[in-house]
UniProtKB/TrEMBL annotation, chain B:
PANTHER family to which the protein is assigned, alphabetical: FERRIC ENTEROBACTIN TRANSPORT SYSTEM PERMEASE PROTEIN, FERRIC ENTEROBACTIN TRANSPORT SYSTEM PERMEASE PROTEIN FEPG
Lineage of source species: Bacteria, Bacillati, Actinomycetota, Actinomycetes, Micrococcales
CDD domains assigned to the protein according to its UniProt record, in alphabetical order: TM_ABC_iron-siderophores_like
Membrane topology: Multi-pass membrane protein
Signal peptide start and end residues: none
Gene3D superfamilies, sorted: ABC transporter involved in vitamin B12 uptake, BtuC (1.10.3470.10)
Protein known as: Iron chelate uptake ABC transporter family permease subunit
Subcellular location: Cell membrane
Amino acid sequence: MTPRPEPAEVRTDHGTTSAAPVGTTPGTASAPGTGSAPTDAASATGTTPPPATGPAAGTASAPGTADAAGPTLRAESVVLGYDGRTVIDGLDLHLPAGRITAIVGPNACGKSTLLRGMARLHPLSGGSVLLGDRDVSTMSRRELARAVGMLPQSSIAPDGVRVAELVARGRYPHQGWFGRHSSDDDAVVASALAATGVADLADRPVQDLSGGQRQRVWIAMVLAQQTDIVLLDEPTTFLDVRHQLDLLDLLTSLNRERGTTVAMVLHELNLAARYADHLVVMSAGRIVAEGDPGEVLTSDVVRGAFDLESDVVPDPVSGTPMVVPRGRFHTADRATRPA
Amino acid sequence: MTNSPANASPLTAGHDAIPGDLHLAVAHLRTTRRRRLGLVLGGCGAALAALGTLGLMLGDSTIAPGTALLAAFGAGDGGDLFVVQQLRLPRVLAAILVGAMFGLAGALFQSTLRNPLASPDILGIAAGASLGAVSGLLAFGLAGIAVAVSAFGGGLAVALAIWFLAWRRGLHSIRFVLVGVGFAYLCQAFMTWLLARADEREAASALLWTVGSVADIRGEDLGILAAGAAVLVLGVMAVARTQGPLALGDDNARALGVRVDAARVTTLLLAVGLVALATSFAGPVAFVALVAPAIARRVLSDGGPALLASTAVGALLTLTADLIGNHHVFGVTAPVGIVTGLVGAPYLLWLLATNERKERR
């Protein structure tokens, strides 16, 4: 399992462009039978030099190179709703393989519903979700669970469950009917614990952990599922800013080192713009803008989606767009306020 | 926690640390958990053997342990052999079997519905099964396995009624439990009515189904009970694995590849089947299905559904309660259901008192 090459053209601002680690992943590599066609395809692209490596590529996102990386997940004119009320009516979304996609939008715009629909947690009223060229509704749940991991908003840690035990439940789709945990499973669990930095908590009851630690444990569980695609529904909610950054750094590491395709619903616009390769802005069940955050996140888009006046300035740390909202009060210079 | 500088990712650091140690540590944790389960099951087994032997020894005439055990396996002379084979051994086995069935059913209900209060006692499913058995006996003159089928119908009817009235609004809601309590009362009322209008002799035998007793299960009945339980347990083995993911929430379970609705319906049908079958022979042995899984989960404390341990603890509880009730420990002779009720009711009160605190996670 060779990591995919860094999508360098999008990362020029970070200064860590060439720092993509080129180590193998021992934990996952030692589990035979887990790597399937998608990962083989990934390693195949790893051997050929990526065509677009020049930093001059600038802000242009290059879906062409990403497509070769592994199976892509995409929604085609999906219709989603609750109890006859349609929330999303005919929406297309393509999650670029090997990239981080962030979906943002105001409350109740359907962003979580969309993600849940793509993970088959919410039934489609129309359209289809495709993994590669396969309609996911034709796959068994187990089969899908080996390809797409999903961390939903509401996760329940049973009373008394230990960290390692919870993470081990991520192995479920890989085990047979009367499946027992094997030594291979232990290796994958160990790898997931290490990757998320919770190895030293392995024997602790999950309910004793802090919110940030707990969220890492849940992500470790999804990692133990060993999927090429990981979806997360508001993974940073309820975390303080420090732990939000920790978590997004962690997801970025996974993306860069394992080539995992990450798609998540986020609330915090500026962090979304900073961490996403591909930003999707939704409003009222539709995608109003998507693409490179630097191009997508403008004050017009923010106004259209959130009904909010804002200045968009470069993030002094990352250079990505930073939305500075304007309210009715506390504007320093009345003259600069838009009419 | 991880105060790594921005450019040294925790992922890389972790990978360096993985190989031997952590792998071994994870394997060790898993072995420890399995050993703990082994200890609990072994302990329950030893206690069951000891108490079972005691059950064979005690009675109107006390039999020495060696003689009693030999008699249990068919060796010995006339009097003791008859008492042990025909009276005491069936009762001990029935207590173990019925207790195991209630314990397992309770664990299935509680884990698949993610609610420690969701036991067949509280939800009225045991009462529904009782009502099914009593009405089958008194109103339709059924006997044998037909009573079990009637009990299953009663339990299933209550389960379905709860489904339509409460489950859809959330498995955790207090409404869910309250609707069940309502059905329990309704079934009790119908049962009292049936008993009141029955003739005295019939009513006396049917009264069993209001308290729960393992005193009169022997011979063919015991065989039917054991065979039915074996079939249901086979089914349980097929769904047992889904209980771990299900405990994490429906979304998580689906994301892990569980067909949640199918798994839950199958599990509940099997659990209703266990309760109905046990109830049709022994009546509603109160609170075993509520308490046994709670004890088992606490002893194991691994966050798992504790199906095996609940089965063992249920058997142990019921055998203990039957010995206590049968041998004047508190100066009276009482059917097993009354003893388990005395133990279980305080636990239920404690659970209700502490449950709300837990819900505010």
